[in-house]
Specification:
There is one protein chain. Helices cover about 50% and strands about 15% of the residues. The protein is of the alpha+beta class. The protein has one domain (about 1-125): 3-Layer(aba) Sandwich (Glutaredoxin). Strand 3 (about 95-100) and strand 4 form a beta hairpin. Helix 4 (about 50-65) packs parallel to helix 6 (about 110-115).
């Protein structure tokens, strides 16, 4: 009885949120994450980003020299289930979201920080996803 009183309110709401992603959505996100070495879930497309954070993330990846043949982007605005599902999948509340070799790297703020401190360049080089 007391456990429920001591549990933070957001935890129970979060547990409810996690129940909404269907098996089909999870499978489609799994397939998307595996579709290329570098995968970005974003608002809009690389050619026409629909928000400043997505635009900046695309610019950072281009500046870093990510090989276009090793890159895939998914527009979360085209599918409401994808837009909500990717947040649950990664346990990250915002879009864009970057995956490198099937591992979640982070959102815009993390990508900017990694770009500034050089760790993004190191990661991209280590994972062999740069233009040769």
């Amino acid at each position: 009885m007391f456990r429920s009183i001591l549990r933070p309110q957001f935890a129970s709401a979060r547990q409810q949120f996690f129940r909404f992603m269907s098996k089909e959505v999870r499978q489609s996100i799994d397939a998307a994450v595996k579709s290329a070495p570098v995968v970005l879930f974003m608002k809009g497309t690389p050619e026409s980003p629909a928000c400043g954070f997505s635009r900046n993330t695309i610019q950072i990846l281009g500046y870093q020299g990510v090989d276009p043949s090793k890159f895939a982007a998914y527009n979360v605005l085209e599918d409401p289930e994808l837009r909500q599902g990717i947040k649950e999948y990664s346990d990250w509340p915002t879009v864009p979201q970057l995956y490198i070799n099937k591992e979640f790297v982070g959102g815009h703020d993390i990508i900017v920080q990694m770009s500034e401190d050089g760790s993004l360049a190191d990661l991209l080089e280590t994972e062999k996803v740069l233009v040769q």
